[in-house]
Amino acid sequence: MLHIIACCKWVIDEVYIKRGRGEEIDFSSVDWKISDYDRHALEEAVRIKDSLGGKVTVLTVGAENAVKGMKDMLSRGADEGCLIKDESFARLDPAVTADIIAHAVKSRLSPYDLIFFGDGSSDLYARQVGPRVAAKLGISCLTGVRKIAFKDGYVEAERSLEREIEIVQAPLPVAITVLPEINTPRIPGVKDTLLASRKPVLNLSSCDFPDYTVPAVRTVAIKAVRLDRGCVFFENNAGGISSLVEELKKKGILS
Amino acid sequence: MSGIWISSEEVAGVGMDIARMRGESLVRLVWRGEKAHISAYLPSLIDLVEKEKPSAVIFPSQVDLNDLAAGLASALNCPFISGCIKVAADETGLEAQRHIYGGAAVQVVRSDAWPVVLTLVGGERVELEGVEIKEVFPVSQTAVKVLERKVKESANRPITEAKVVISIGRGFKRREDIVLVKDLAARLSGEIGCTRPIASELHWLPESVCIGLSGVQVSPDLYLALGISGQVQHVVGIRGARVIVAVNQDEKAPIFGVADFGIVGDLYNFIPLFLEALKGTR
Amino acid sequence: MDFKLTEEQELIRKNMREFCEKYVDPIAAEIDEQARFPKEVFEKLGAGDWMGIPVPTKYGGAGSSYLTHIVAVEELSRSCAASGFTLSIHVGIVEMLLLLYGTEDQKQKYLPPLARGEELGAFVLTEPGAGTDVMAAQTEITRDGDDYVINGTKTFTSNGPNAGVYIVFGWTDKSAGRKGMSAFIVPKGTPGMRVGEHFQKMGIRASQTSEMIFENCRIPKDNLLGKEGDGLAIAMTGLDHGRIGIAAQSVGILQAALDESIKYSKQRIQFGAPISRNQAIAWMIADMATDLAAARFLTYHAAWLKDEGKPFSREASMAKLFAAEAAMKHTIKAVQIQGGYGYCKGAKVERLMRDAKITEIYEGTSEAQRMVISGSLLR
Ligand SMILES: Cc1cc2nc3c(=O)[nH]c(=O)nc-3n(C[C@H](O)[C@H](O)[C@H](O)COP(=O)(O)OP(=O)(O)OC[C@H]3O[C@@H](n4cnc5c(N)ncnc54)[C@H](O)[C@@H]3O)c2cc1C
Ligand SMILES: Cc1cc2nc3c(=O)[nH]c(=O)nc-3n(C[C@H](O)[C@H](O)[C@H](O)COP(=O)(O)OP(=O)(O)OC[C@H]3O[C@@H](n4cnc5c(N)ncnc54)[C@H](O)[C@@H]3O)c2cc1C
User: Fold this and answer.
1) What CATH superfamily is the domain B159-278?
2) Does the beta carbon of A225 lie under 8 angstroms from any beta carbon of chain B?
3) With respect to CATH, is domain B4-136 assigned 3.40.50.620?
4) What is the atom index within ligand 1 of the atom nearest the CA of B211?
5) What is the DSSP letter of A188?
């Protein structure tokens, strides 16, 4: 009987991000979704449960509207939810999110065997929560995972690094952050969605957690990126093209 | 507390800027030992940092190094700003920019506490001489064991997964000229895509690499459009590209309206010049 | 007043959108071109409980509301109006009629395979000589011992060639006038029922439409739906429900036209600027969006009335009339916005315009809707 925890973030769907006046983002008509990679994390958790038996708890940390997110998550095969919501949790630094998750897992969801995360969230893409939760819990973390198998009580995982594939073995419990190529998430059927609200949910709020020190990292601005990309022109000669190459290096495309 | 530590020369540019601003020295880490799982380096890195107390530790944004950065920040309980595209230090702290919402927006963050851990996307590589070095050794025992390592293949990937797509349009005069693009694709580990006329009318390339409304949608890091007018049916397929470079001899071609970088000129002149300019890069 | 869908309905809509992006959008143009029924899509819809949303779970459905079904039809129609219509007639007419008029045995027998999408439903009313004028029907159904025998030719039967369950209307007693028609459940393969001509259509080409020919087609009396003489009332009730579905289909088409128009007009450069900067184009889009909003509210309102157990026949007609005419009007504009590209095969707006036309015709023409609406006001 495995206990698998899948952590999913409820995020603004970036396709709705529009540029308002100046560099402001117009958030007036945004829709929300489960962070893309996290859907693969949840799907992987459910597939493992389906093949090896056990229970999947889907966990999310967010603001009031995460209630709808929890329904969406529960419609994707999880058995129960852990909804950690508070208005003050709307824009958490990943470090604090990780502290909250680690605390909840330790105090309310133990014992556990696997904790799944997406490799990065669709909004912040900080890639911190998985490894930080693992560090807090004192367990190993396998990041960038695109394939998983179980052998003799160990997890065998294929990690996708920049230039190589690394195949690793780790004991349970372990934290795993997944890449989207690991699986194709299901599209919930109508009944899955309707039944989601009947699944048990553990509701937690800020009073269930110790006061976390206000993170030293503050967001001072969020600026929309222009959709017309403000084309910068270069001359079609050696000088112009080497400047182009320099720009591509700055963008991290060439090195 | 002193010293700006960088994990490699790839991030030396930012490291030097911060060191200069704070009047501290730059230190480069050297990773010793057989390459084990990255977690093997964490204990000695933490020891070293706790002992020597650098102001900042900076890594390139790579899968393994990001793990190390997160583990370090967690142990030190210090700020970690990941995936920075720009960093500037000032009197009190530093300000960094990072992409959010899939690149639709930029987040500007400040940290006024030291130490700080950073990972950089596309940092500026600087060859360093005479800079102080600190060695990091792996521990011999880790819970995670590496069973195997394989070098990734880069050829024949589906175009939708390619990191670099070089796409050709009717600006190409002859089928044979595609050879020119093959060189370029090989050089950039990229795949070749095209517009509909190239695939469906001229049959120079398979339909599977036709990009746009009636073809596939791609989101590579680099999309290089050569001799493509940029009609709407084509450009809907490349919106997800991180950087779009367009080469077209017609300055009014709509492709420039959606490109990051543009070159108004003959693609036949462009290709050899570009190949030449790529020589200094990896 | 509450203009909100429930969270579940919003999620269900999103899931249908995702389903469409994955399974429908990639083939929509091709099944239109080839006039092919996308069996594989409907198998998947069945597996996801989309084919029986308002059917109670004990009959294999999802046990949700009619409005939820309407939202699903709208979203599916946005990608493929033919498939949206197939879903609408299957659930909105055939399943609803079985639910409302079927005996417990009939519901147990026919609803589960329909709700699971294993069988398709068909509504067999129109005849060559009896379109708007339903009473001009010729089909006769005579009692013979424990059986009934159907003779007649029906036309324009959607899903005719590929349905599993047909609801067929005809005269059991012509002399009784409006009380002389009856409805029967005829399973596929019943001897004496066969598919006649297949129609080649201008739009919704991925929906199969055919004649249905009945020659001494014998069915047991257990297959009578409702009571003898209820036929006309049953047909009208079916159409009342179905019309909300056609309204939803029109709303889906209209949404797609708006999406295409916004996208195209912002990207098409003429005279050095996107064509959307021209007021002439911008106002087309404003009108389109306004009519879309109105059509959607009328449609949801009619479905809401139905779910509340309130009379909704007139509102269903109003929704269908308005949404259908708006869809036609604005898909023409959507083609206009795309100029020559919009007129060519492969442009989605070209298909939308052809698909939109049928919404003004079937399940009662716009003229017939005006007759229903005015009739109910001037009674
Ligand atoms: C319904 C529909 C769907 C479509 N779907 C797609 C689709 O999915 N994908 C797609 O690509 N197209 C599609 N099209 C076609 C699209 O509208 C354009 O016709 C097509 O993209 C144009 O291809 P092109 O840019 O290669 O050719 P052109 O429009 O002919 O452009 C060639 C460009 O090359 C430039 N050029 C010429 N010589 C040189 C030179 N020596 N150096 C530099 N530049 C040069 C010219 O200035 C010109 O801008 C679709 C069209 C319709 C109607
Ligand atoms: C693709 C398709 C699918 C269909 N699917 C089905 C189905 O599944 N089941 C089914 O039973 N039927 C189906 N139909 C039939 C459809 O419902 C009829 O076509 C429709 O009711 C109109 O009938 P008609 O075509 O005979 O036109 P007619 O009734 O001949 O009408 C012709 C024109 O005269 C107008 N008109 C008629 N009477 C009046 C009046 N009194 N006052 C003013 N104007 C009037 C009409 O509005 C129309 O404009 C389908 C039709 C099509 C084309």
Assistant:
1) TPP-binding domain (3.40.50.1220)
2) yes
3) yes
4) 9
5) P
Closest ligand by atom to C361 CA: 2
| Three-state DSSP class for residue C184 | strand
Distance CA C256, CA C292 (A): 10
Top-level class of domain C7-120: mainly alpha
Place of tokens 């930029």: B106
Classified by CATH at the fold level, domain C233-378 comes out as Butyryl-CoA Dehydrogenase, subunit A; domain 3 (1.20.140)
Number of A/B CB contacts below 8 angstroms equals 233
Residues of chain B with CATH 3.40.50.1220: 159-278
With a 6 Å cutoff on the Cβ, whether C156 touches ligand 2 is yes
Beta strand extents in B92-234 (DSSP E only): 94-100, 105-111, 116-120, 132-136, 145-151, 164-168, 191-194, 222-226
CATH architecture under which domain C122-231 falls: Beta Barrel (2.40)
Q: How far is B252 from chain C (nearest CA, A)?
A: 8
Arithmetic mean of pLDDT over chain A: 92
Nearest ligand to the C-alpha of residue B248?
1
CA distance C56 to C62: 6
Kindly tell me if the per-residue pLDDT of B217 is higher than 90: no
Average pLDDT of the residues in C36-56: 98
Its sign, for the CA torsion C1, C6, C11, C13, is negative
Q: CA-based angle C217:C137:C87, to the nearest 5? A: 75
Q: Are B240 and B162 in contact (CB under 8 A)?
A: no
Per-residue pLDDT tens over the stretch B10-49: 899 999 999 999 999 999 999 998 878 999 999 999 999 9
pTM equals: 0.82
Query: Which is the CATH superfamily of the domain at A3-208?
Result: HUPs (3.40.50.620)
Q: Which residue has the tokens 């591509």?
A: A248
Tokens of B131: 């800079």
Q: Which of B113, B122, B260 sits opposite A252 (nearest CB)?
A: B122
- Complex-level ipTM: 0.90
